[in-house]
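Appendix B, example 12.
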Amino acid sequence: MRTPPILFIAWAHVTNRVRQTLIGVIGVATGVGFTIMISGVMEGSQRQFVGTLVDALPHITITDERLSVALQPAEQVYGAAQRSSFTATDKRPGISNSNLLMGSLRNWLPGTIAPAVKVTAMINSGSARFGITVTGIDPRQEELVSKLAKQIVSGELYGLSRGSNAVLLGQTLATKIGARVGSTVTITPGTGSPISAPVAGIYRSGVREVDERKVYSLMRTAQMMAGQTDLVNEMRIQLDDAFRAREIADRIAGQIGYKAIPWQEANADLLSSLKVQEKIMNVIMAAMMLASTFAIYSIISTITNEKRNDIAIMKSLGMKEYFVQAIFITEAVMIAIVGIPVGWLLGYLLCYATTYIKYSNPITEGVMAIAPYYSITHYVVVGMITLGCCLLSAFLPSRKASHVHPVDIIRGAS
């Protein structure tokens, strides 16, 4: 089968001028590779942080805050009844009929649910004193709704059941007060007497705020601190799909009448910071693509301009302007077809190389490795933009050169 003249001439130019072709391929591959690397690292860091946040906290937390105040008996009989001068009680109301509510939610909930007791307190160890939140849990049910058991770096989750008033401390808090497994700390609840609590374990969630302020105990210990032996003021939910938390929280709130807080709402400040970071990332990516576009344009257009003599010869042989332009556009496509896959490979290798880079995370207070995100979308989008850039880089100079009279080109070359 006879090769079309356009392809034949374009292939001859590309293969006979190896240096120019190689420079074009390297330029295209470099632009593609580094753009993919930067986009993968930036998106990967965001996903890594969100993943840490999702693992550290329940996907949905149901509190004992009612969405609407129940009508009083007098209001049910007398519509104009008014209430005033009520004295607030120190005791929290808790979630009424918590077992029945959890049973009704389990019928449809795409995940698991467990009860908890939340109490504010102060923790003392020697002269150190810090405000904390004590969360009372059932270790067997807690394994279904969190990764606490896997986050323990010293001791174990079921150590809570082996000691009287035993607690689990976050690693940051334990470091601050100088506690370790086997130590005894003093916890003073907001309402009640101080208690001595042995440290059964130390966990590391990966979120500094959690590790610094949250202490786990058995439910009965937290109930004792609150002074209410049957109190359940929180339910913790782990979903099969964490990103459906808002939708499911709204449904739960409508069904049971208690406030349901999705993890996105509980961490709204951090997530808003991520949105700002995402906008900055988009600006950086646009700048990178712009710089890459100019670099590719400069290389391809220079190669095209260096072939002005070839254009003059082809026009003197009677070739039409559009035919000449098509040859150089075809050459640009050939360079792109080789350069883009090489750039994809370079981008993948650069992303892989970044996994060996360690950095200190100020949020988790730990050393982490960069975790780039590998997405086919990055490769396709960058490849398409680069192909368009190559076509434009060849079209504009060849169009300009093809309009010049062959004699002027040859005279200028001499």
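The chain has a mean pLDDT of 81. The chain has 16 helices and twelve strands.
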